[in-house]
Design a protein that fits this description.
With about 350 residues, this protein is α+β, with helices and mostly antiparallel strands. Helix content is about 25%, strand content about 35%. Keywords: Signal.
Amino acid sequence: MYRFPITSAALLMLSATALAAQSGPPNKVEGIFTNAFASGFPRQIEDLSQSKLETNPAKGSVFAEYGNDDNTRNVQIRLFPLPEDGIDAVLLRDVQRYSDGSEIPVNTSETQSPQGEPMDCFTRRKGELGYTVCLAEIRGRAARLQMGAVVDPDADALPADIVERDQKLAGVFVDSIHEAPESAGAAEGDAPLFPADIPALDMSGADVRPQDTPFAKALPKELGDRSLKTISVSGPDTTYKAMYRDAEDTPTQIVIYTGEGGPLQDLAEFHEGELANILGSIQKTDTTTPDGLDMRCLHAVKVETLAANTCMAEVGLGLLEIQAVARIDEGVTDVPDDVINWAQESTGTLADAVAELN
């Protein structure tokens, strides 16, 4: 079935809400741009293959995900600007956050990477999923590396050999990320990054780079006052996703769900459920794009000063959803007509760009 929850309106609105309250972390830290770190995330390591790599210069962050063929291991790595209270405070917050849901004691330990970079690690388990989590400071940024493995669901602690293996792997990643700016250069700026050595699946199943997929090539680089920032292609049922942001970091996100799944009505009902507890009412509209593609749209004010606009359509590749957040005046509880018109025009432009892909 389609994987609707991974791009829910709630998550997009949460991002926009945080940005409304702060200017956001810098793209350039210690003279190094965010994109310069991406080459430090290898395509393949041990039995793990990279399934996702996203850089977000506006937030100064990089996210990567890995898995193996039999789904017994997974890795998630996030690099982000170091908070003012330092890496120790990040560790403390993580331990407190994970302790409540862990079925084994969350104990910390100190170790280091093969090149001597300090790391703090802890373990946790939920059911048959055991995690070794390591934190490290890398050139003014924080790195959180979560190494997951299938373990005994009744174990009181993770097997020592798995913990040792995953800590060593975390250290290899830390060294690779730390060294990346030396080889990639630190002056790539804030343009969206599509690493040449990171493949994705195209529509026929062949290995291609994300920027070479028909999806990426069909997208406009600019969408009104918003610029294309990130593109990702993930599987196993291919999902295409791209993010646009304006100067205030207000997002527009386009997603195409491929594979077998339910009808457009299911997607519409999912998003309507996501818009619970709104300030006013949900405004539902059926419209067409400039090229005549039918779209179903939902508009609501879920958070003060932010309007959520989600438009959906059936396209050649599968189901299309486009979420466009707009800033509105304080005290407004229903999405104004001009915002609805803007959202439908903006999303319609994107929908037409990808409608004929197959």
